[in-house]
Amino acid sequence: MRPKILYKLFSNIISLKGIGPKNAKVIERLCGKYVIDLLFHKPSTYIDRRNSPKIIDLEEGKIATIIVTIDSHSPSFNKRMPYRINCTDNTGAISIVYFNLRGPYLKKIFPVGRQKVISGKFEKFNENFQITHPQHVVDLENLDSVKKIECIYPLTAGLTSKTIQKSINSALINLDPLPEWIPDDKIKINNWPNWNEAIKKIHNPVNTSDSVNSLFLERLVFDELLAQQLTIRLIKNKISHTQGIAIRRNNKLIKKLEENLDFSLTSDQLKTIEEISNDQSKPNKMLRLLQGDVGSGKTIVALFAMMQCLENNKRSILMAPTEILAEQHFNTIVKIVNSMDLTCSLITSSTKDNHNFDADILIGTHALFQEKVSFVNIGLVVIDEQHKFGVHQRILLNEKAGNECDVLLMTATPIPRTLELAAYGDTDISKIMEKPKNRKEINTKSININKVEDLKNSLNKIINKGEKIYWVCPLVDESEKLQLQSVNERLKDLRNYYSDYSVEIVHGQMQQEDKNSVMQKFKSGKVNILVATSVIEVGIDDPDATVIIIENAERFGLSQLHQLRGRVGRGEKTSTCILLFNGPLTENAKRRIKIMKETNDGFKIAEEDLDIRGAGEILGSKQSGVPNFKLSNLDKHKHLLEEARETAIKTIKNDPELKTPLGKAQRVLLHLFRNDVAIDYLKTG
Fold first, then answer.
1. What is the distance between the alpha carbons of residues 644 and 430, in angstroms, rounded to a whole number?
2. 3-state SS class at 263
3. Mean pLDDT comparison of 43-52, 229-238, 271-280, 377-386, highest-scoring range
4. What is the pTM (predicted TM-score) of this model?
5. Which of 378, 436, 391, 429 minimizes the C-alpha distance to 408?
6. Is the CB of residue 348 less than 8 Å from the CB of residue 327?
7. DSSP calls for 474-530
8. Is pLDDT above 60 for 210?
9. How many CA atoms lie less than 13 Å away from 26 in the CB half-sphere?
10. How far apart are alpha carbons 194 and 188 in whole angstroms?
């Protein structure tokens, strides 16, 4: 339950003075519905309006705030010509210029003989200074209303910076003081203000040094990172002290599994299997993240952990984000376990009639926790592509499986070290860096879209060899019909060109059964070319698919290009990825394509992606398992992340239940940044 001291900050923004239903709706769309969301909407930059010269001292192209007397109006009699207001001070003359505004309105705003304060950028026209559409016009008695340092905020349609500033100032009135959750020595060393002063000063800076890169913002960034690192440490501490099940290896089933594999494990796979096995053998609950590039063999590693469970009469659950991926895992695992006289069941919304909840290994999607059944005798929960799931979904599955069972998180998206620390803290991490020995490097080429006809002609040889092709079109938002048309147009084009072959389509708006049907036809060889959106990014494993064309490759991020490329090269055949681009390319697009052609190493690509896009974009809302920071920029605040980690480690070591006065203040911090999900997680163990 949220502390009373935060009630005001978590009241709806419509409760603020001067915010009506219309503005409240727009502001909610921009940053959120609570007062705290508005306060955490930080300025992107600022304008220094402290320069207040006389007219004679104005500088061209510079922002200034000056006091003038209105002398006369020079209306325009041609719509294309400007309306001029002539002004002076005791040193010279200037013109205020407006386009497309009516004379009566301007005469009301600028009465002749009245002194006015105007602020904006001054330019020269015919050797005389003028200002076009000044940003501020006020009476002399309201001079103080023109901020000396003006904050500029990210906006959305229907909202002005002035409305945001007014709303924020309304929110800042009568703020309740919050308890100090940062240790005194940390406050002293960094010379940080308290929370109330910091939040006020980032929105109303007095000096330029108070603005975008100030101690005030730094303090708030540290708060956000500390809340997130405390959450990670609390969860890890709770898990490490949660009574689990000591699942020790006896090698009966594990040796049998090794004998049933028709390939040799890589040294990284063997090392990772050993790390997970050691965790399972301990009496405390395991929480481990398994990172492995596309096609590195994570599923087999997880299967060894499942065998260790079965050797101890414990079952396992594997959850995947899509039916396609769940079915792929099932197809990989079921053949092996059936040959070992074990059972495996697929549980998805499309397989409702065939659910077997008593199988040794349960594989499925969200349907696993939507079913009204409690899983019994579970020793291990494996969550694949874990960043696709929210924390609450993981908690729910953990509760259904029994809180004492081990948890193995898997991802095929290599994570740069900075993001690794931000998202997982000190969670135990295993990495599979090398590919299976029979896998060949994927040849990557880039081709301008104006050569697409030559490309289509060359693909005939691929199809004639019995190999298959993915053709991926960009679809940023699957609800946008305009973009969906581009996929359908490419389908029509390819069907006309390859009239003797089968060309089908798969995209996110299709029914799941239809998607599964098309994928099955593709896998069986009845479909030669599959036109798709990035819906195929995760979870299709077809060794006969040897070419992937990514159309408008310049629209995709580097990590996504690498994930898509991983759909080919799944067998021993030589595979090719063709990046079909529409020039001219931006510098970043050129760099992405160059990196893709130079390396197949997903970990290297992840670091390059971080360098190009920055942490903020990678930590976006589409990856729900990774924090989406409002104040922090991990490119700029890596040092604060390290400080927050050290503080969190020290705090939880000395006060694991957050019961000291400082600990109680830190509970307020967790609620402030809505990391109270940690409390839910703690309840589940």
1. 24
2. coil
3. 271-280
4. 0.68
5. 429
6. yes
7. --S-TT-HHHHHHHHHHHHHHHHHTTTS-EEEE-TTS-HHHHHHHHHHHHHTS-SEE
8. no
9. 15
10. 11
- CA gyration radius, the chain: 31
Provide the token pair at 198: 């910091």
- DSSP sequence for 390-404: -HHHHHHHHHHH-TT
Give the position of tokens 């999900």.
677
Name the phi and psi angles at 676, rounded to 5.
-65, -10
Q: Which two tokens stand for residue 510?
A: 């299709």
What angle (nearest 5°) sits at the alpha carbon of residue 297, between those of residues 296 and 300? 170
Beta bridge partners of 125: 128
Residues in the chain: 685
Instruction: Kindly report, residue by residue over 403-428, the tens digit of the pLDDT.
Output: 678 889 888 877 776 676 666 665 68
Model confidence at 76: pLDDT above 70: yes
Model pLDDT for residues 442-468, shown as the tens digit of each residue: 999 999 999 999 999 999 999 999 899
What average pLDDT does the segment 588-613 reach? 86
CB atoms within 10 A of CB 303: 24
The C-alpha atoms of residue 69 and residue 116 are separated, in whole angstroms, by 6
SS (H, E, C) 13-47: HHHCCCCCHHHHHHHHHHCCCEHHHHHCCCCCEEE
Look at the block and give the residue holding tokens 């996110």. 508
Integer CA distances (angstroms), 56 to 66, 91, 281, in order: 11, 6, 82
